[in-house]
Amino acid sequence: MDRAALFDIDGTLVDTNHLHVVAWWEAFRQGGHQVPTHAVHRALGLPGEQLIDQLLGPSRDRSEDARLSAAHDTLYGTFFPRLQAFDRAGELLRTLADDDWKIVLVTSAKDRELTALLRALDADDALTDTATADDVEEGKPAPDPLRHALSLVGVPEDRAVFVGDSVWDMKAAHRAHMASAGLLSGGIPRADLTEAGAAAVFDDPADLLARLHTSPFTRPA
Hints:
Layout: E1 3-7, H1 17-30, H2 37-43, H3 48-56, H4 65-77, H5 89-98, E2 101-107, H6 111-121, E3 129-132, H7 144-153, E4 160-164, H8 167-175, E5 179-183, H9 190-195, E6 200-202, H10 205-210
Parallel strand pairs: 1-2, 1-4, 2-3, 4-5, 5-6
Helix pairs in contact: 1-2, 1-4
């Protein structure tokens, strides 16, 4: 029976989280909002509108949301030529693909941003499909993105593992009744990932690759 390995990409496979923090911090500053970087960091992994909700509150003036998001996108876009995948990230995906796992990226990135991330990752040959935030009504921590990703490859939840770096990733996997592995490469503490539902936590893609034999990939569900 088929098996699916689902991966977040920002902060999980490509080293982008702190670049997003800087871009959002500056976007908020330009919009007249003083938001501390540590708060931005902990909100990463949420879709844009939910991230702004988390940081500015649901009672804010929503008419400026599009301008804030556009400012973030413009600022973050200046980093595209310099994005770098984490060490052995591509090798991790290829190793799993060679072992007959279907590899699906689950991301809120789209268009130019997704193109830049895929270029940095340089592992298109290992990918089966990509699921983006545009495909569902509600992003992580809702389970919808993961369930949609599984529908693309026809794999049930008990034959899948999701790898991510944020508490939102782990909560989405838990709500989707799916095994999950958390990575510390995004900067979120081990205890937070575990509390959010991670079955195991690894330093980064290289550490997960080195310890695949003791990871959720040896015991999906």
